[in-house]
Amino acid sequence: MILGIIRTLILFAVVVIGLRLMGKRQIGQLQPYELVIVIMLSALAAIPMENTGVPLASGLFPIFTLIVAQVALSYIFLKSERARSVVCSTPSVLIENGRIVEKELARLRYNINDLLEQLRAKNTPNIADVEFAILETSGELSIIPKSQKRPLAPADLNLSTEYEGLPVTLIIDGYLFKKNLAKINLDENWLASELQKRGIDSYREVLFASLDSAGKLFYQVKTKAV
After folding, report:
1. How far is 168 from 121, CA to CA, in rounded Å?
2. In terms of Cα–Cα distance, which of 34, 35, 37, 61 is closest to 48?
């Protein structure tokens, strides 16, 4: 029993490390070969977990082989566009200059209903508003609307805008991110003073707090248990 638990934890750790090495992508953003590797990793890890008669090393070897193969392929694709196009294919234009490319739909076995569904998922219910629709190699549909249908931006009105950076997270669930404070040249004394102004004695009482580029502090205190 204990041996099985140890084997399971080891295999779990190896698979998690392998997925981390594959990069930070969501399942929907994986290339087909990456999805195959993920499925094979889970299948290979299940064998030594279910059958303790299989040596752990025999189960780990093919897992390591797949991880090395994926990392090697990723490196090759960084250096060779031809290799990437052979394995991952290339993006396909489904709508070009406002017209549906029927031949490309037929080649991909991608029907009009599939296209309309993807457009609705991208908040574009009217196909007449689309200038280009490109099916990426990951299966994601990228949409470029017609110029008359694009959201109005300040640049369209020749308006100048101030810089808006990303808010800096300071506290999550009572934990203080000291490195983030240091990045914006502030310290714990400043934060404690700001919290005290708002009637908060300790940052441990705060559920979440962040500071935007304009210096505005957003916070929410924890709900006290009854």
Report:
1. 31
2. 61
All domains of the chain in start order, with CATH? 2-86 (no CATH), 92-149 (3.30.240.20), 168-221 (3.30.240.20)
DSSP state of 208: E
Residue 222 has pLDDT above 50, yes or no: yes
User: Is 134 in contact with 128 (CB distance < 8 Å)?
Assistant: no
23: left (phi over 0), alpha (psi -120 to 50) or beta: left
Cβ of 215: how many Cβ atoms within 10 Å?
8
Q: E strands along 35-115, which residues?
A: 92-96, 99-100
Rounded to whole angstroms, the Cα distance separating 41 from 67 reads 9
As a whole number of angstroms, the longest Cα–Cα distance in the chain is 72
Structure tokens at 132: 């280009």
Taking Cα atoms as reference points, which of 180, 89, 177, 184 lies closest to residue 134?
Answer: 89
Q: Can you read off the two tokens belonging to residue 222?
A: 């924890």
Is the pTM higher than 0.90? The answer reads no
- The b-or-e profile of 167-176 (16+ CB within 10 A means b, else e) is ebebbeeeeb
Q: Rounded to whole angstroms, how far apart are CA atoms 199 and 164?
A: 29
Quick: pLDDT tens for 111-133.
Answer: 999 999 999 999 999 999 999 99
In angstroms, the CA 203 to CA 195 distance is 7
**DSSP output for 170-195:** EEETTEE-HHHHHHTT--HHHHHHHH
